[in-house]
Amino acid sequence: MPRKFNRKKKLHVKQGDDVLVLAGNDKGKRGRVMLVYPERDRVLVEGVNMRTHHEKPSQENPQGGRLKREAPVHISNLMVIDPTTDEPTRIGRKRIEEEGGGRWVRYAKSSGEIIDK
Question: What is the pTM of this model?
Fold first, then answer.
């Protein structure tokens, strides 16, 4: 049955997370998530999956030329790094009850530490 109210995709990574690359040419590299594309299940990670981009001369870059840029990586090839142990971990979700209601948070399965503050 499709969702009726909250149609937002639930992903295990968010912008600003530190991640480890599990597969591909950059396997084993660590980086910070810069952008998330939930509709395509892809993430832009700083310093990972660098590709050459040919740029025409412009006012900002009068020389033009070949520039290295990050390309998106599929979300299944990433694992979030636990901030307490500095090791890669799986992510779970649990509800925290607060005054005035509750909220869902992500937590590290290995240590049980809450990742979302």
Answer: 0.82
